[in-house]
């Protein structure tokens, strides 16, 4: 406890200094439809300022951020600032019906928040309906001092890995949800471009120009809806220096594994002969047959300055990519990295635990409505759950969950999310995959777990084999957490707690829980608000793989959630 008090006092002092020397960064996001052509077809998508991906935001740690969102699209919109702590500014977090209601068409809203006690690469994206498919962009936080814990790079380059749906993504997912079906993407993308392996796409291939001998900082983001991705550049190695805006001990590798929602800061040295090389991304998937996931490859070009193509050597070098089910490669990346102790904004692991939870993560079925037509397994609808609770947003309740909490309004959500699963069984045994006593979820609920301010929370995420084993990227709003351990099979406290890294574990905001396995996280609930916890695979999120932590205000005005902005969008 004494150690925590020291770090809390230090963080408070840093906060005061940061705000005293802060700048204000102000932008306008005009959300609007735009027609673009991909995969031979013209499609109308929702964009910010007509850009896909959207604009890159750059701030310094300590800055105040003001974003005016003007909604000229036909859909309700909210923006989530993924990875931003929103310390004492939970109203600006953005998930629709959780911290606010949607910004209606032809309406506007201004987000205001401070970026404090963090630096590195995070991102922003829509958090209403499925609009984040095309409404997203990089959010770069530079150190206020200008000093980095690695050699200064020649250039910073956002690399956003995404996916493309060949149609109106809102219409596609309305059908998917109504029918309880699965719809895979038609292509992966690098900075919005599918690359030359797809029809009509040779001129839609991202190109990165390098100067030989220089080092570049790739600010990588996985904005894809549903897939972990492998990323490689032919004949080049990477030095990973940060994950989810948290510095790590430098990690050298030739392949990046990145889950939906995660970010990575990666140094790339242009140390190869002047030439033409491919960068490429391909999915990492376990537990699904190929028709149920996008098994394509997106690629871009890495071209050295001074390279002149000829008929003899014009074909770029292609990297050897891992197979889609290369769990050993993915697991090595996810588990061999440690945090950089003492780096800027590093926080030690809290050692005293107040709340312990074990949360099972399952893909389920929901019974098809009477006289309905459902296209999921056994002609039912796909669903998903945490501790057998399948979450639904409080649509039509008149308040967001955070408003209901602040004003003490009942009937919007309940505070009885279970700490442990209602049934204990061999969670990861394939024998239980089609056990019909466990496959079906019951009614949809809106349940949260209430936490005392400053309490320390330890959560075991336990994947199950119900229907199939999958890796689930679990994202926690409002906090970063320490990843104490992860493994395969069923978590057993007596056996696995001795594996906890309490010295230099990774600090992240999104954890790829291993397929058929578990992960243990720990965080300090020092930020009052309503904080969404969800799978960053959008299919699973839409099916109900979510919950929320309601963190109470602290004992003083400075540790309490302020009232909502007067212009907060109404339901």
Instruction: Estimate the mean pLDDT confidence.
Output: 94
- Spatially, the strands of the biggest sheet line up as 10-9-12-17-14-15
The beta-strand count equals 32
The end-to-end span amounts to 42 Å
Reported for the largest beta sheet, the result is:
6 strands, mixed
Question: What percentage of amino acids are in beta strands?
Answer: 35-45%
Low-confidence stretches: 1-19
Radius of gyration: 23 Å
Shape: globular
Helix content: 10-25%
Structural class: mainly beta
Helices, by number, come to 7
Describe the protein in words.
The structure is a single chain. Helix content is 11%, strand content 36%. It is built from seven helices and 32 strands. The chain has helices at residues 2-20, 169-179, 327-335, 401-407, 436-439, 493-496, 538-543; strands at 24-38, 41-48, 57-60, 64-71, 79-82, 108-114, 120-126, 136-142, 155-164, 187-190, 207-210, 215-222, 228-233, 238-243, 246-253, 256-258, 263-269, 276-284, 298-304, 355-366, 381-386, 390-391, 444-445, 448-451, 455-463, 472-476, 481-488, 507-508, 510-513, 517-525, 529-535, 546-551. The strands form seven sheets. It has a six-stranded mixed beta sheet, with no helix packed on it. The protein is globular, with a radius of gyration of 23 Å. This is Laccase. It comes from Vigna mungo (Black gram).
Short description:
This protein is mostly beta strands and 571 residues long. It has helices spanning 2-20, 169-179, 327-335, 401-407, 436-439, 493-496, 538-543; strands at 24-38, 41-48, 57-60, 64-71, 79-82, 108-114, 120-126, 136-142, 155-164, 187-190, 207-210, 215-222, 228-233, 238-243, 246-253, 256-258, 263-269, 276-284, 298-304, 355-366, 381-386, 390-391, 444-445, 448-451, 455-463, 472-476, 481-488, 507-508, 510-513, 517-525, 529-535, 546-551. Helices cover 11% and strands 36% of the residues.
């Amino acid at each position: 406890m004494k150690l925590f008090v020291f770090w809390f006092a230090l963080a408070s002092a840093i906060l005061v200094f940061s705000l005293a020397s802060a700048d204000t960064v102000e932008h306008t996001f005009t959300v609007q439809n735009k027609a673009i052509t991909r995969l031979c077809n013209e499609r109308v998508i929702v964009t910010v300022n007509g850009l896909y991906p959207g604009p890159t935001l750059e701030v310094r740690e300590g800055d105040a951020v003001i974003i005016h969102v003007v909604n000229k699209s036909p859909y309700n919109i909210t923006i989530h600032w993924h990875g931003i702590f929103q310390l004492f500014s939970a109203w600006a977090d953005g998930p629709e019906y959780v911290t606010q209601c949607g910004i209606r068409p032809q309406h506007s809203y201004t987000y205001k928040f401070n970026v404090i006690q963090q630096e590195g690469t995070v991102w922003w994206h829509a958090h209403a309906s499925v609009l984040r498919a095309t409404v997203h962009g990089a959010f770069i936080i530079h150190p206020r001092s200008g000093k980095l814990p690695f050699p200064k790079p020649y250039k910073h380059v956002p690399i956003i890995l995404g996916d493309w749906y060949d149609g109106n993504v809102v219409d596609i997912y309305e059908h998917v949800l109504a029918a309880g079906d699965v719809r895979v993407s038609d292509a992966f993308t690098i900075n919005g471009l599918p690359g030359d392996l797809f029809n009509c796409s040779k001129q839609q291939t991202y190109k990165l120009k390098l100067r030989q001998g220089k080092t570049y900082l790739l600010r990588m983001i996985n904005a894809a809806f549903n897939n972990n991705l492998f990323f490689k550049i032919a004949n080049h190695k990477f030095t990973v220096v940060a994950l989810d805006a948290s510095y790590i001990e430098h990690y050298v590798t030739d392949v990046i594994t990145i889950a939906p929602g995660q970010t990575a800061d990666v140094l790339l040295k242009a140390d190869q002969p002047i030439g033409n090389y491919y960068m490429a991304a391909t999915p990492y998937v376990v537990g699904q047959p190929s028709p149920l996931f996008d098994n394509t490859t997106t690629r871009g070009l890495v071209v050295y300055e001074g390279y002149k193509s000829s008929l003899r050597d014009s074909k770029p070098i292609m990297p050897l990519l891992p197979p889609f089910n290369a769990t050993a490669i993915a697991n090595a990346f996810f588990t061999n990295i440690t945090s950089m102790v003492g780096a800027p904004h590093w926080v030690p692991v809290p050692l005293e635990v107040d709340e312990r939870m074990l949360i099972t993560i399952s893909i389920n079925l929901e019974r098809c409505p009477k006289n309905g037509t459902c296209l999921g397994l056994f002609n039912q609808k796909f669903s998903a759950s945490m501790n057998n609770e399948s979450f639904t947003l409080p649509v039509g309740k008149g308040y967001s969950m955070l408003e209901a909490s602040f004003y003490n309004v009942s009937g919007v959500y309940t505070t009885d999310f279970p700490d442990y699963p209602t049934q204990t069984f061999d969670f990861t045994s394939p024998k239980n995959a089609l056990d019909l006593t466990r496959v079906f979820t019951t009614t949809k609920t809106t349940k949260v777990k209430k936490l005392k301010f400053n309490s320390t929370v330890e959560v075991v995420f336990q994947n199950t084999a119900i229907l199939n084993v999958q890796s689930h990227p679990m994202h926690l709003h409002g906090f970063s957490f320490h990843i104490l351990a992860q493994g395969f099979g069923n978590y057993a406290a007596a056996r696995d707690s001795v594996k906890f890294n309490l010295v230099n574990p990774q600090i992240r905001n999104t954890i790829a829980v291993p397929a058929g396995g578990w992960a243990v996280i720990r965080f300090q609930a020092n930020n009052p608000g309503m904080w969404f916890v969800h799978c960053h695979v959008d299919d699973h999120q839409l099916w109900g793989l979510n919950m929320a932590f309601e963190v109470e205000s602290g004992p003083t005005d400075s540790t309490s959630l302020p009232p909502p902005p007067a212009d907060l969008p109404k339901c």
